[in-house]
Design a protein that fits this description.
Blueprint: H1 3-14, H2 18-37, E1 42-44, E2 48-55, E3 58-61, E4 68-71, E5 74-81, H3 83-89
Antiparallel strand pairs: 1-2, 2-5, 3-4
Helix pairs in contact: 1-2
Length: about 100
């Protein structure tokens, strides 16, 4: 499902226009992005949480030449699924 399909499903679910659903989704994503940029954690009980994780500097390899390169330390967004989401994904597991 891409963003357009998600917006359409959200509009149908909430019985609002597609434009309203797109503004709502964009607003939610902007708030999550802003909070992560400030170093805060965003948690939705049962669904999961978004947080920033630090990745240490390391040495990598250029795949074309094999030469060693230095990769700088960075911050990356991380999502951890909550118990309710994990249970929903695993419904019917093993029945294939």
């Amino acid at each position: 499902m891409n963003k357009g399909e998600f917006v359409e499903a959200l509009a149908d679910r909430l019985d609002v226009s597609r434009a309203q659903a797109e503004r709502a989704l964009s607003g939610v994503l902007e708030i999550i992005s802003e909070q992560l940029a400030e170093g805060d954690k965003v948690a939705f009980i049962g669904f999961g949480s978004f947080e920033v994780s630090k990745r240490a500097a390391r040495t990598g390899r250029n795949p074309q030449t094999g030469a060693a390169i230095k990769i700088a330390a960075s911050k990356i967004p991380k999502f951890s699924a909550g118990a309710t989401l994990k249970a929903a994904v695993n419904v019917g597991k093993g029945k294939r």
